[in-house]
Amino acid sequence: MLATFVQSPSKRLTDSDDSPYGHAVPAKDIPTLIPPMHRLSDVSWYVWSTLAPHPGQLRYIGHDFVTTGDTTSIMEYLQIAKLGDDDDDLPWPGLVYDIDTNEAKAMLATPNSLSIAYIMMDHAAVLGRRHPKVHIFKSGRGIWCMLWDLVPV
Question: How far apart are the C-alpha atoms of 138 and 95, rounded to whole Å?
Fold first, then answer.
């Protein structure tokens, strides 16, 4: 990660020597040792590929404590459509959808799952072909969770 120093808002920002802006390095002079990171998927893949002995063996990506409105509304809709109610109890393995279903495609299009789609697209050469399926369930606290199983083909 690249971090910069930001001066306290209570001080006046100037280009003097005591200002962090007086010592700023022009962007063109920053070394390109850090891979370009534009999305959460870039950061996730960087961490995974740095720590994993074999990055191509990525199999599961989970999201605990899903609170994003667009994502949870689709999860609630799928629960009501399948079970007929919106009960707080939906333990593991919860509802499981294969990517060939409209339900899984809807989940893949949610804000919480877009990073997974980007990882599969951006790193297909390392990961190979995958046939994902998604588990949506609630933790013991009634909080939405999801687990993507990236099944190798």
Answer: 10
